[in-house]
């Protein structure tokens, strides 16, 4: 098979590859460090990596991929119960971590391999990648919103296909320098944010902890791309009026990309007004890696996640499986995808794997969307939590959330449905007010939404909160809201 990381052997050894804070590795140093670790993994079938945001994590993952073993990234913030489930389910032979890492009891019971990232020798020896296209590269555990997390087995061909498709869509080359502060146990931060630059022969500068000052510093000193989640871009939008260096940094960036959840229109517009640059969005999942994106040479319209990436088939279907053929921006259907970017299976869960695919191989994403006349996709929410059936209408929570965020009295907003004897479901708004002393009331917000969207999309109930519950990727956890 072709190499996932040709730059490790074919490119200049002194080319910068990774930087975490004041620690950095060239391609030669990364190759040497990864080869040394890979040599100790030859007899393993599966290894876990303590995925803290540091150089050792990237060395460990690269080593696993070179050795042809499946890598299970572990979230350092996982609780004991979740961590115990993941380790029992994936049964790794080894856990790779930085020397001296503070590991919880569930991990300490396993054989530990220290990862040395501080190498001086850049003669790595053989760097042949010992695996085929269909062999598992990563096993990434889903967030487990409907039960224990499931391990999505991601083959090597899915990583190569997604990263090459994004290179086409984003005109991504080895000259690009990426900056981000994303966690490394998830496909956004690890596959796109680390393996992406390494496959292109470019470099990545990880912020450790995300700060707007860190973004400004890196983009103003040679970085060309920024990856983030909506929470990060919201903080950027809030900070822009008082941070001229941040305005300059974003104005000069080649590409600003947001993912993992929808970026509110209000934040899109504030960033564009201050910097003249549009944030582009893409759409993916753990199981599918990336499916669609706004192209670098396309129009970045707030609310759309662009068009299907090269090699990805995408369709919308009704509840009975009938394909939605209308590109009218209104007809809602569930997104189904096929292509080389898809995972192979849920580990040890043949039942869940079978349920996730149609008979002819389409993956059921559970995400609801519409197609615009130009073919671009606009996601309206998750089938389970964001699709509200009220008064005979199918309503996506996302557009109501965007409308609420345009109200000056609303700092954050989430929308859910709850049972209603008359409407079927009624629309419920969960609002963090800009001024807790004078929160906007139901009548004011309902009128605001009805004026912008349509009367049937107005909220019927409003709850005021101090903060919305979010996970590590900044996604709002709506099940926590719905169940009080």
UniProtKB/TrEMBL annotation:
<dbReference type="InterPro" id="IPR020845">
    <property type="entry name" value="AMP-binding_CS"/>
</dbReference>
<dbReference type="InterPro" id="IPR045851">
    <property type="entry name" value="AMP-bd_C_sf"/>
</dbReference>
<feature type="domain" description="AMP-binding enzyme C-terminal">
    <location>
        <begin position="399"/>
        <end position="475"/>
    </location>
</feature>
<comment type="similarity">
    <text>Belongs to the ATP-dependent AMP-binding enzyme family.</text>
</comment>
<feature type="domain" description="AMP-dependent synthetase/ligase">
    <location>
        <begin position="12"/>
        <end position="347"/>
    </location>
</feature>
<dbReference type="InterPro" id="IPR000873">
    <property type="entry name" value="AMP-dep_synth/lig_dom"/>
</dbReference>
<dbReference type="InterPro" id="IPR042099">
    <property type="entry name" value="ANL_N_sf"/>
</dbReference>
<dbReference type="InterPro" id="IPR025110">
    <property type="entry name" value="AMP-bd_C"/>
</dbReference>
<dbReference type="Pfam" id="PF00501">
    <property type="entry name" value="AMP-binding"/>
</dbReference>
<dbReference type="Pfam" id="PF13193">
    <property type="entry name" value="AMP-binding_C"/>
</dbReference>
<protein>
    <submittedName>
        <fullName>AMP-binding protein</fullName>
    </submittedName>
</protein>
């Amino acid at each position: 098979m072709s190499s996932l990381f040709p730059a490790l052997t074919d490119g200049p050894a002194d080319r910068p590859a990774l930087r975490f804070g004041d620690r950095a590795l060239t391609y030669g140093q990364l190759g040497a460090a990864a080869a040394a670790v890979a040599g100790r993994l030859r007899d393993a079938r599966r290894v876990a990596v303590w995925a803290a945001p540091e150089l050792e994590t990237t060395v460990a993952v690269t080593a696993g991929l070179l050795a042809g073993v499946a890598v299970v990234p572990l979230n350092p913030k996982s609780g004991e119960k979740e961590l115990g489930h993941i380790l029992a389910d994936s049964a790794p032979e080894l856990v790779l971590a930085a020397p001296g890492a503070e590991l919880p009891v569930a991990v300490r019971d396993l054989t530990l391999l220290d990862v040395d990232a501080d190498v001086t020798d850049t003669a790595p020896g053989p760097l042949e990648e010992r695996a085929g296209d269909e062999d598992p590269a990563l096993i990434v555990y889903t967030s487990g919103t409907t039960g224990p997390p499931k391990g999505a087995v991601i083959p090597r061909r899915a990583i190569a296909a997604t990263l090459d498709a994004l290179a086409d869509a984003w005109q991504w080359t080895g000259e690009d320098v990426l900056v981000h502060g994303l966690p490394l146990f998830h496909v956004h931060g690890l596959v796109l944010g680390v393996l992406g630059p390494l496959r292109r022969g470019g470099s990545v500068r990880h912020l450790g902890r995300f700060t707007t000052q860190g973004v400004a510093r890196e983009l103003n000193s040679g970085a060309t791309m920024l990856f983030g989640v909506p929470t990060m871009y919201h903080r950027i939008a809030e900070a822009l009026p008082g941070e001229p260096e941040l305005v300059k940094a974003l104005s000069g960036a080649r590409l600003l990309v947001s993912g993992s959840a929808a970026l509110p229109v209000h934040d899109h517009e504030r960033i564009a007004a201050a910097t003249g640059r549009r944030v582009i969005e893409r759409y993916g999942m753990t199981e599918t890696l990336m499916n669609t994106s706004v192209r670098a040479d396309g129009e970045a319209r707030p609310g759309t996640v662009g068009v299907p990436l090269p090699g990805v088939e995408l369709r919308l279907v009704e509840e009975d499986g009938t394909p939605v053929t209308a590109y009218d921006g209104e007809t809602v259907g569930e997104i189904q995808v096929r292509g080389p970017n898809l995972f192979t299976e849920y580990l040890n869960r043949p039942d869940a794997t079978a349920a996730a695919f149609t008979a002819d191989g389409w993956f059921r994403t559970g995400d609801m969307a519409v197609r615009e006349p130009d073919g671009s996709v606009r996601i309206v929410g998750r089938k389970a939590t964001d699709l509200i059936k009220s008064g005979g209408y199918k309503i996506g929570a996302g557009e109501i959330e965007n409308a609420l965020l345009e109200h000056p009295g609303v700092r954050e907003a989430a929308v859910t449905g709850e049972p209603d004897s008359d409407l079927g479901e009624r629309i419920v708004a969960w609002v963090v007010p800009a001024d807790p002393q004078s929160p906007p009331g139901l009548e004011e917000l309902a009128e605001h939404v009805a004026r912008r969207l349509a009367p049937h999309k107005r909220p019927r109930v409003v709850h005021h909160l101090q903060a919305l519950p979010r996970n590590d990727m900044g996604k709002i956890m709506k099940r926590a809201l719905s169940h009080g």
